Amino acid sequence: MVLAAYMGRIKEKAVITSSLCKEYKISDLTITALRGLNLEVLEGEFISVYGSSGAGKTTLLNIIGGLDQPTSGKIVVFGHDLSTYDEDFLATFRSAYIGFVFQSYNLISTLTALENVMFPMELAGWSDERVRERSELLLEMVGLSHRADHLPAQLSGGEQQRVTFARALANDPPLLLVDEPTGNLDMETGLEIVRILEKLKAKGKTILVAAHDVRIERLANRTLHLQDGRIVAVNE
Questions:
Q1: Is 205 exposed, middle or buried (0-12, 13-18, 19+ CB in 10 A)?
Q2: Are 34 and 229 in contact (CB under 8 A)?
Q3: CATH fold of 10-235, please?
Q4: What is this structure's pTM?
Q5: Least crowded by CB within 10 Å, which of 94, 133, 152, 227?
Q6: What is the pLDDT of residues 109-133, one digit of tens each?
Q7: What does the domain layout of the chain look like in residue ranges?
Q8: 178 touches 197 (CB < 8 A)
Q9: Residue ranges of the alpha helices (H) in the chain?
Q10: Buried b (16+ CB within 10 A) or exposed e, 53-87
């Protein structure tokens, strides 16, 4: 009974977008980033999204993660219609449900690698002992225990990206949104990131990755081709 219930749960829809549109206004110019996009992502699914610059990949991730609001259409994540909530709720929602890995890393420059990973858990009110224990485990998972006391400026690009993964997993979110994780890395360093994604897939995380890396596409259950804000092809 327990197993049957669990198997039913992981097949639920983690993300649903319906006729999703997003426009940005710059002076008198209107830029359309997403055009009526429809997408369903099951829990535990690994989705790779690729497309040229300006195709709408980052905009899609930001809307799914509650960092941005659609101009029209609907975005439902784990049963929550994100367009109906205020920023206070969305901040709490992101902390509990979403892990972000940004292409630019976005680490806090004045905090060590360990402190960057600890930060989300401290904000969530975890105990000091639990925060440190989990942070150390996460740095070990990404192979950076030996760099725990180093500041971001003392880390290579690949090391900073791995710290970003560890931080994104701090509160054990069920959904991971990853934007071009190997885009700024050399081939060998990028392979370390691919291996982390492989581990997370095996753990059953729901993962959406915007990437142009064929190694990531091979990991994906589905690969979506985005062009001019629309899904123009799906490879399974």
A1: buried
A2: yes
A3: Rossmann fold (3.40.50)
A4: 0.90
A5: 133
A6: 999 999 999 999 999 899 999 999 9
A7: 10-235
A8: yes
A9: 2-10, 57-64, 87-97, 113-123, 128-141, 157-168, 187-202, 214-219
A10: eebbbbbbbbbbbbbbebbebebbbbeeebeeeee
